[in-house]
Structure formats: C-alpha cells, structure tokens
C-alpha cells in the first residue's frame, strides 16, 4: 500500500482492530464520541466536516468503519440511521472519487431463507439495516476501486465490552441468565484476523465483494455455549428462545451464514476459528 489510509470510525470494534492491523502505515484515524490517541474528531453526518477532512488528508484508501450498526435502531429511525450508514459514506465517496473505498456490510443483505450464502447470491434484505447495507454496497460498487466486506457476529478484545461475547460473559459471570435466539445462524468472526485480512486484501489490490467471515457457521446458541465453555461459565444460564419471543422489531434472517470460500481462495487462508480466539480471550 504505502499511501495514506483514512480510517473513519477507528474507535469502534472493527475500527480499532483495523487500526492495529494497519500498524506503522500512514493512517489518519477518526473517532466520534470516544476519543482515540492521535485521532481526529469527525461526525460523518456533517458533510462539510467530512469534505474538509478528506481535503486535508488526501487519502488513497478510505476504510469506512463508522456506522450505526444496531439493527433495532435502524428499524425505529430509518432516516436518521440512513444519514450515518449511507449518506456519510456517500459524501466521502464523492469527496475523493478516485480513492479505494472499503466498506463493511453484513449477512443481513440476505433474507436468510437459504443460507449459507456466497458473494454471487442475490441480495434480498428483510429489514431496514439490511436495506441500508444494500444501498452502501451499491454506493461502493460505483467507485472505480472498492471493497465490500460482508461480516457477521464480530467478536474480540473490546474495551467497551459491547459485542455478544462480552455481553454474555458479563451476564453469566454475574450469575444471570442470558436469552439467546434459538433460530438464528451466524458466522462468528474474529475481529483481529478480520482486520488483518482487510489489510491483506487492500495490499493485494483486491476489488469487489468478499465474505470476510469466520470459517464456521453455527447457531447463536451453539456459539453462546462455546463461549461459556471457553470461559468456564455455567451453560445452564443460556436460555434459548425463538426470535419472536425476544420483543425485537426488525425481522432477522434465520438461515443466514456467510461462506468464506472466496476469501480463502484469494488469501490462501481463512480467519481464525471461534474456538482459538475464545481460548485466547478467556486467558
Ligand atoms: N460487529 C458486527 O458483528 C458486525 C456485523 C456485520 C456488519 N458490521 C458492520 O461493521 C461496521 C463496523 O461495526 P462495529 O461492530 O465496529 O460497530 P461499532 O463498534 O458500534 O463502531 C461503529 C463506530 O461508528 C461510529 N459512529 C457512529 N455514528 C457516527 C457518526 N455520526 N460519525 C462518526 N462516527 C460515528 C461510532 O462512534 P461513537 O460510538 O463514538 O458514536 C463507533 O465508533 C459497521 O458498518 C457495521 O454495520 C458489524
């Protein structure tokens, strides 16, 4: 690579890991409400600020990790979250049309009727978040150089302990039960090896859509039990429940799951297995 990377949203789960994977490269990293060392404050809904940031940094690559990733928030506030999830990246895309635009999408672009999915399967979102991701993918595809990375169930070190693993660990450690959807399939994705793969794909000049997901597709309950076992916690506190009972507004794709075959073919390897990562996290 060698050229400047603008990493937008470097304080989030994915953003922090990508920042670490970029190492000593020439990186300008932005944050929103959670300051990071050496970072630049940027609200991606502030079009003038986004344009000014891009004019100052003149990036060769923009990695867009900032988003409103909460599916329920998108369902309840479609227009407010559209400004973050689609308009923000659109402003960046137009401000530097020749840059390589790297965005993160999701298995929620699919309806979950017939997973697991590969990159060539047609998209068919069933909730607002999924529709926004389809719009983001189309936006990225309009850039001459772009990468769309569909990811799922990302977990790893996270100071804010917001991802599924830490939420579950913290509940079970406190002796509390944890409701887990019994009818959803995910592809647990190790944040650190995801970030390394993102940098490898950029370095190789890869373009197009990749399922940058872990090597194993499993039910959420199975993943929850894997976490409990790795951390030596009581699996009996995990309560499998059908999604309809969880009071969620947005529909969830049931049989989703992302095949990582293209990623493996391109890189010659996949991401870390959930078990390997969980063992490290539990140390
Ligand atoms: N995590 C997953 O399992 C998963 C699965 C599929 C797809 N994805 C996608 O992966 C990407 C990264 O997700 P993540 O898990 O890293 O989410 P995250 O931890 O919530 O990080 C998102 C970041 O976006 C920032 N942000 C939100 N609104 C902003 C605004 N107006 N201006 C600037 N920054 C803003 C947040 O900053 P503040 O908190 O300071 O506002 C936060 O640091 C997203 O596109 C998400 O949809 C994630």
**Main sheet makeup:** 7 strands, parallel
> Structural class, judged by helices and strands?
alpha/beta
For this structure, what is the CATH class of the domain at 5-159 and 190-214 and 264-271?
Answer: Alpha Beta
What is the residue-averaged pLDDT?
96
CATH level-3 fold name of the domain at 5-159 and 190-214 and 264-271: Rossmann fold
Q: Please write the string of helix (H) and strand (E) elements.
A: EHEEHEHHEHEEHEEEHEEHEHH
Beta strands, count: 13
Helix content: 25-40%
Could you name the ranges where pLDDT drops below 50 across 5 or more consecutive residues? none
Topology:
Blueprint: E1 5-8, H1 13-22, E2 27-31, E3 40-41, H2 47-57, E4 61-64, H3 71-76, H4 78-95, E5 100-106, H5 128-141, E6 145-151, E7 154-155, H6 164-173, E8 178-181, E9 185-186, E10 189-190, H7 191-203, E11 208-211, E12 218-219, H8 220-230, E13 238-241, H9 261-267, H10 274-282
Parallel strand pairs: 1-2, 1-4, 2-3, 4-5, 5-6, 6-11, 7-10, 8-13
Antiparallel strand pairs: 9-12
Helix pairs in contact: 1-7, 2-4, 4-5, 8-10
């Amino acid at each position: 690579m060698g050229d400047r990377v603008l990493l937008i949203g470097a304080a989030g789960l994915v953003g922090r890991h990508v920042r670490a994977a970029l190492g000593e490269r020439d990186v300008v990293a932005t944050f929103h409400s959670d300051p990071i060392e050496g970072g630049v404050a940027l609200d991606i809904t502030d079009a003038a600020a986004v344009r000014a940031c891009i004019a100052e940094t003149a990036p060769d690559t923009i990695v867009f990790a900032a988003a409103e990733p909460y599916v329920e928030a998108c369902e309840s506030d479609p227009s407010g979250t559209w400004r973050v999830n689609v308009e923000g990246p659109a402003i960046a895309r137009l401000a530097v049309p020749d840059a390589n635009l790297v965005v993160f999408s999701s298995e929620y672009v699919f309806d979950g009727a017939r997973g697991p999915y590969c990159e060539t399967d047609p998209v068919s979102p069933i909730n607002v978040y999924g529709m926004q991701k389809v719009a983001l993918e189309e936006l990225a595809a309009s850039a001459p150089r772009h990468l769309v990375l569909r990811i799922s169930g990302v977990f790893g070190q996270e100071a804010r302990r917001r991802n599924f693993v830490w939420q579950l660990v913290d509940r079970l450690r406190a002796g509390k039960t944890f409701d887990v959807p019994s009818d959803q399939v995910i592809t647990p994705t190790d944040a650190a090896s995801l970030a390394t793969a993102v940098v490898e794909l950029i370095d190789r000049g890869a373009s197009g859509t990749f399922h940058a997901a872990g090597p194993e597709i499993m039910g959420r309950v199975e993943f929850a039990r894997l976490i409990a076992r790795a951390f030596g916690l009581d699996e009996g506190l995990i309560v499998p429940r059908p999604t309809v009972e969880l009071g969620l507004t947005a529909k969830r794709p049931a049989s989703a799951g992302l095949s990582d075959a293209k990623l493996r073919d391109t890189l010659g390897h996949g991401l870390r297995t959930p078990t390997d990562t969980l063992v490290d996290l539990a140390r």
